[in-house]
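User: Here's a chain of 295 residues. Predict its fold as tokens.
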Amino acid sequence: MLFTGIACLAITASFCQNEINVQNSTIKKRKLKVVDAAIAPGMTFHVSPLGSFSDFQRINPKSVLLNENMDGYTLSNGFMASAGPTFSANLGFNIANKAKTEYKSNTQLRIGITFSEISMSNYLSKTDRKRFDTLTSSQTGQMVFSDSVTHSSYTMNYKTQQLRIDVSIIYRTNPAARWSVFGGIGIEAGESIMAYTDINHSEYSTVTPANSTSGTSYNTNTPYRSERIINKNTYGYATYLPMGVDFRIGNKREFFKQLHVFYEARPFVNYTYIPELGSINSVGIKSALGLRVTI
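Assistant: Prediction complete.
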């Protein structure tokens, strides 16, 4: 009798456990689940066309330096490469399957903010040569001519610093492994927190033998002049392809098992709208070393 009661209790317990398991497996999960947080400082390298002189005049109509006489000055042509700081901070979300019964382990939605800096530059230069002195040898009568060569230049550098919303889809290899690689696609968009133009003028002179390009510098008492003009807010967005490698710091202790260091590269195409000018486009790459904490 006792054996029969125990057997019935065991069968009932087994049935109840199976029922609980079935209920748990049918419970709907949330579509998104926060699984990590990350920060990543780094550098942005980008290439864009050089701005024309008229571009800088349109952006800075009240500039004193840009309204000076520019006759004889030569403007650089082509493309410019520049670098600037970048920073991103985001949360990572695992995505539930269509039935919402479990989360996809290797697919992640990242949402956060990123700081970007885009610039546009150019350079104006002019060289004037004038006869400075004539030396005559007392023995041979040969004359040696010296020229005064004046070098004058204007540099123009426009920068816009933007804070953007950053959204991407990331695909990882085995997330449970100590080493993993990842890739995906992302987009960022936002508005500037600062936009300004630095304009500088410098001039110096040298005394050189006639038909020579090098000589001795001397002071012409021409001061170095500069101005910074605050410009209107800009807007921009970029599409990019994140890719990188992730390393879990710890392998035994739970605290260190939550910490990951990662390197991420983001090749991008960027579009920036400048109210005074219109849109400018650039391509480049962001390179960042970050820290990720799993939750």
